[in-house]
Amino acid sequence: MSTTSSESYSALESSLRAAGVDLDVVEARLRAQRIETPSWGYANSGTRFGVFAQEGVPRNPFEKLDDAAEVHCHTGVCPAVAVHIPWDRVDDYGELAAYARSRALAIGAVNPNLFQEKDYKLGSVCHPDARVRRMATDHLLECVAVARELGSDALSLWFADGTNYPGQDSLHERRERMTACLSEAYAAMDPEMEMLVEYKLYEPAFYATDLADWGSALLVCQHLGERAKVLVDLGHHAHGVNIEQLVALLIGEGRLGGFHFNNRKYGDDDLIVGSVNPFELFLIYVELAGAEQLTGAAPTRYAIDQSHNVEPKIEAMLLSVMNLQEAYAKALLVDRDTLAEAQLAGDVLEGHRVLLDAYATDVRPLCAKVREDLGASAAPIEAFRASGYRERVIGERQGVGVSWA
Ligand code: PSV
Ligand code: MN
C-alpha cells in the first residue's frame, strides 16, 4: 500500500472500530467474496448496430482465460470464469479445464446458447415445431456433458423465446413445451449440478417473452425440482421494479440461484455494474449480506454479465469487480442491531439513516487493503496499466475477427 492509502486505511480503521464494527469479520468476509467473470465479456461485442473491434481481444477460449486470470490477479476474488457454448466450444474440454487450473482458475457456469441458430427464429424450447425443440434440448444435454467435463456445477439458462404478435403462437402451449424440454435437461444433470433459470422482460421478443420475470422463472423452477433456481440479471427488469425486494423473496424461498451483475439506464444495457445506480446495488447487497449473516454462507453465486462496447474490456471488468467489492463492503458495515431496534420501534427515519450511514462510508481504503491481503492489487486499474499486459497481447493477438464470440 502506498503511504497515502495506508494512512487513509488507518483513519477508516480507527473510526470503524470506534463505532463498534468488528473489522476482522468484515475483512474476512471481503476476502471470501467470489465473483465469476464471463468469457464473453473479454471478446468483441457491440450492439445490433455494429461491433467495434478492440485491439488485443482474445482469439479463442484459452486467451479469454488468460484475460480472466489477469482480472483475478489484480482483484483477488475472481477465480472462476463462466463459459458460453458454442462461443467457447473446443475439441478437448479436458484441455480447457486443465488450462484454467494452470491459471489458478476454475470454470464456472456453462451457458448454452439457444438464440443464434437460424432454426431458433420462432424460439428454442418453446418453438412450435418439435424438431427445433429436439435440437434445443439436445444442445442443453450437450451442455450438461460439457459442464461435467469442465468440472462445472451449474447450467445457466437464458432463453430468447417469445412472440412478437398476439396470435403468433399459443401462450399456454409454449409454456408446456418449455417445461417438457427443461425437465429432460434437468433429469440429465448430475446431483451436484444446479440449473439456473434467467428471465428477461423483453428483447428479442417484443410482445410476450416466455420467461419475462422472476415469477415465471420461479414457477418453472418449482416444477423442475429443488436444484432449479432463479438467476437475477440486473438489466432484465421493468423500470421501477424493486430488485432488492425480489432478491429477499427468492432467498426466503431458497430459490436465488445466481446473479448476473451489470447496470442499465434503459434496458439490457450491459453497463459496468454500479456505474448508473450504485445505491440500488448497495441495497441488493444489504439483502445478500443479511442472509449471509444468518446462515454463515453466501446465499447464492455471483457472476458478472457484461459486454463492453466502447470501454477497454479488462479495465472495465476490473472496475466492475471493484464496484462489487465496495457495495459488499458497505453492506457489511450496516449496523444491523441499530437497524433492528429502529425497525421494532417503528422509527422509520432512523432505520433509513442507518443504511445511509453505511452507504456514505468511503470503503475504498478498506477494499484496497483487503485486495493487498489477498496478494492482489491495491489499485487494480493502475497496476494493470503498469503491467504492460495490454501492450503485450496487442502484439501477440493479431487478426481477430469482428464477431461476438
Ligand atoms: C441475455 O441478455 C443475457 O443476459 C444472457 O445471460 C445471455 O447468456 C447473455 O446475456 C449473453 O450476452
Ligand atoms: Mn444475463
Write a concise keyword list for the protein shown above.
three-stranded parallel sheet; TIM Barrel; globular; alpha/beta; 405 residues; binds manganese (II) ion; binds alpha-D-psicofuranose; five-stranded parallel sheet
Structure description:
With 405 residues, the chain is an alpha/beta fold. The protein has a single domain (33-334), classed as Alpha-Beta Barrel (TIM Barrel). Helices cover 49% and strands 12% of the residues. The chain has 15 helices and twelve strands. A hairpin with a 2-residue loop joins strand 2 (46-47) and strand 3 (50-51). 44% of the residues are buried. The mean pLDDT is 96. Alpha-D-psicofuranose binds next to loops.
Query: Which CATH class?
Result: Alpha Beta
Main β sheet profile: 5 strands, parallel
> Helical percent range?
40-55%
The average pLDDT is: 96
N-to-C span:
38 Å
What compounds are bound to the protein?
A: alpha-D-psicofuranose, manganese (II) ion
Count of structural domains: 1
